[in-house]
């Protein structure tokens, strides 16, 4: 009882922090905008019509409306998506080292995107970036489908085989990217490399909407799988004895992960580390019960991504850092510090 | 009354002309803007703009394919000049919707493309006559060089090599600034028949090309030991006439990044003077 109360209070704290971080993300950027203008612009968009005395309010409002807000929202949705899929993979594979990359979705998406960039002259002008986005999504799904098919036999789905298939697909994808890099010209090569570092620079209301649709759909479905994931932690046969259709559950969890990560990667490129680390952080604090782990992971993932993107935008302004580099640069040392602190607790 | 309005209008328009806030994305573009005399109106450049020195002191907007929308807005530019590859596309669209004049010009790797680029950019920044003068000077130099090179009885075969990260060198083929530079300097590029862009070649094909001169960008070969390494450690390169006669020429690498710029003919003059020492005295006279 005590543990679940602690978990709930952690979720509540995170739920309070998320809007604060969103606001922080909207209020800061390369163009300095006063807090009064920020608040006015937000209220205007919520349907209240306030007027501002500020001289360049119309430009500021435009920046908040069409640049910062969609970007911050996209960051939070992608953070949540990546973190949830990390938690799902770690639960499914019963392995704390699992992350979405393990089922090939990221490397498959990278191959898709690289191919689209290599053949960008094929697409009609102006559609090249859509081609990249769609190719990345399809590449991610295709790789995951292949991993799943290899892992599934008439006797059921073996996560161990899937793990090995994932390694094979990742290696194959890396070779494919290498080949594409070799064939690409200078500009394409740089585009491919930048794509792989991740960026939220392409945020628009359209992709915020798409991403929100996916995340909300997943959020509605997932609570049903929390107990399944808890049962899977005991082992496949134990879960079966508890009356769970293990193979069906595995299939759905993989589909959910592939779609979540596929869309996230398609919109923002490769953003590592969030999926691996956020579920860990949450588990260290509130324990492995997926009923609390999943929502807390989503919230923390969103918060961290918004803050990481803020760093990416501010540190070398007017230029910006690739977000994947920021998440790893900040996240990895913090995670190491946490591991050192909690060493005894984890091993004991 | 009308007259004052007219005068006021002229003053205002010249003022607005003078107050252009330009951002340049691309080394060759930045160089061109300085050559057109609007360097002072630049408020920021991209990371490849390293020439002239004052350009490198301006704020950097990052790499031209992953521009930061808000970072650019924060500099309040009136004109953003960049290559056709500049992006991402939604950033370009948003900048245009904010009434910022965004111009994407194809990267020039040939002389015709360079001439087109110069007249277009000169018009965009209101320096039409300056542009015409620059074009005339470039053409005059080019013609003079071509005339001087007629004295060459047997043109040299050469390869342009870059060596990224100490690995095996890449050779410049067609569609590269280096290829244009060599053509201007009267050096034959055997790689141009089979290679497009920059490619790694097998040692054997390098031997088959039998270059009599090797051209390298200076930033990769600051000291002679790295040059020696390039030649002695590459099995194929060692066998070429160029390596045997130790004929290696370095060129200023800032000239060739992001296409060719207005200094290309001067660079070609310098390269030709080094490649054909017999013409040295004739060529070096050119300013």
What would a concise description of this structure say?
The complex is a heterodimer of chains A (348) and B (287). Chain A is mainly alpha-helical and 348 residues long.
Report on the structure:
Chain A is mostly helical and 348 residues long. Chain A contains 14 helices and two strands. In chain B, the strands form two sheets. A five-stranded mixed beta sheet of chain B has the order 7-6-5-8-9. In chain B, helix 6 packs antiparallel against helix 7 (128-149) and helix 7 (128-149) runs parallel beside helix 13. At the A-B interface, helix 3 and helix 7 of A face helix 4 and helix 5 of B.
Count the beta strands of chain B. Answer: 9
**Portion in strands of chain B:** 5-15%
Which stretches of chain A are low in confidence, meaning pLDDT under 50 for 5 or more residues running?
A: none
Strand order, main sheet of chain B: write it out.
7-6-5-8-9
Number of helices of chain B: 14
Radius of gyration of chain B: 22 Å
What structural category do the secondary elements of chain A indicate?
Answer: mainly alpha
Mean pLDDT across all residues of chain A, rounded? Answer: 90
Main sheet record of chain B: 5 strands, mixed
Secondary-structure class of chain B: alpha/beta
- The SSE order of chain B reads HEHEHHEHEHHEEHEHEHHHEHH
Mean pLDDT of chain B, to the nearest integer, reads: 87
Distance between the termini of chain B: 52 Å
What is the subunit organization of this protein?
A: heterodimer
- Name the poorly predicted regions of chain B: none
Envelope shape of chain A: globular
Give the C-alpha Rg of chain A.
21 Å
Cα distance spanning the termini of chain A:
22 Å
Return the string of H and E elements of chain A: HHHHHEEHHHHHHHHH
Share of residues in helices of chain A: over 70%
């Amino acid at each position: 009882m005590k543990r679940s109360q602690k978990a709930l209070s952690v979720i509540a704290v995170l739920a309070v922090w998320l809007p604060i971080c969103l606001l922080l993300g909207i209020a800061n950027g390369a163009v300095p905008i006063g807090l009064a203008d920020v608040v006015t612009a937000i209220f205007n968009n919520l349907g209240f019509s306030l007027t501002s005395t500020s001289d360049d309010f119309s430009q500021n409002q435009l920046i908040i409306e069409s640049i910062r807000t969609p970007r911050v929202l996209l960051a939070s949705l992608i953070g949540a998506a990546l973190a949830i899929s990390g938690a799902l993979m770690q639960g499914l594979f019963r392995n704390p080292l699992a992350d979405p990359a393990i089922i090939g979705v990221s490397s498959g998406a990278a191959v898709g995107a690289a191919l689209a960039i290599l053949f960008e002259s094929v697409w009609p002008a102006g559609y090249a970036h859509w081609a990249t986005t769609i190719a990345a999504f399809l590449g991610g799904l295709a790789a995951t489908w292949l991993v799943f098919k290899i892992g599934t036999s008439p006797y059921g789905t073996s996560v161990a085989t899937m793990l090995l298939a994932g390694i094979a697909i990742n290696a194959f994808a890396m070779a494919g990217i290498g080949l594409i890099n070799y064939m690409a010209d200078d500009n394409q090569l740089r585009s491919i490399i930048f794509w792989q570092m991740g960026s939220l620079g392409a945020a628009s209301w359209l992709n915020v909407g798409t991403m929100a649709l996916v995340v909300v759909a997943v959020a509605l479905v997932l609570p049903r799988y929390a107990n399944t994931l808890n049962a899977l932690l005991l082992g496949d046969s134990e879960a079966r004895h508890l009356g769970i259709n293990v193979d069906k559950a595995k299939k759905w969890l993989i589909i959910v992960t592939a779609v979540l990560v596929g869309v996230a990667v398609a919109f923002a490129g490769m953003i590592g580390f969030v999926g691996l680390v956020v579920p860990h952080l949450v588990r260290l604090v509130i324990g492995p019960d997926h009923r609390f782990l999943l929502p807390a992971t989503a919230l923390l993932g969103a918060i961290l991504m918004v803050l990481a993107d803020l760093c990416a935008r501010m540190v070398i302004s007017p230029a910006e850092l690739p977000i994947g580099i920021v998440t790893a640069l900040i996240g990895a040392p913090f995670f190491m510090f946490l591991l050192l602190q909690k060493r005894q607790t984890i091993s004991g | 009354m009308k007259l004052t309005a007219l005068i006021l209008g002229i003053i205002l328009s010249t003022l607005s002309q003078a107050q252009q806030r330009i951002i340049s994305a691309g080394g060759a573009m930045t160089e061109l803007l300085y050559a057109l005399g609007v360097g002072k109106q630049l408020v920021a450049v991209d990371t490849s703009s390293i020439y002239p020195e004052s350009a490198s002191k301006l704020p950097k907007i990052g790499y031209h394919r992953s521009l930061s929308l808000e970072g650019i807005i924060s500099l309040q530019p009136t004109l953003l000049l960049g290559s056709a590859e500049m992006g991402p596309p939604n950033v370009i669209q948003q900048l245009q919707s904010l009434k910022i004049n965004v111009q994407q010009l194809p990267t020039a790797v040939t002389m015709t493309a360079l001439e087109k680029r110069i007249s277009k950019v000169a018009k965009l920044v209101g320096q039409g006559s300056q542009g015409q003068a620059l074009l005339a000077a470039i053409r005059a130099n080019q013609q003079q060089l071509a005339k001087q090179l007629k004295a060459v009885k047997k043109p040299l075969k050469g390869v342009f090599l870059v060596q990224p990260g100490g690995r095996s060198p890449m050779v410049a083929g067609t569609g590269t600034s280096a290829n244009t530079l060599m053509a201007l300097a009267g050096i034959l590029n055997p790689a141009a028949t089979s290679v497009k862009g920059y490619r790694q070649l097998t040692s054997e094909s390098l031997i088959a090309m039998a270059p009599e001169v090797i051209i390298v960008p200076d930033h990769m070969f600051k000291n002679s030991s790295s040059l020696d390494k390039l030649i002695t450690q590459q099995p194929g390169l060692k066998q070429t006439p160029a390596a045997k006669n130790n004929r290696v020429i370095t060129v200023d690498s800032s000239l060739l990044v992001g296409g060719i710029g207005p200094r290309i003919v001067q660079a070609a003059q310098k390269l030709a003077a080094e490649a054909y020492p017999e013409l040295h005295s004739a060529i070096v006279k050119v300013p």
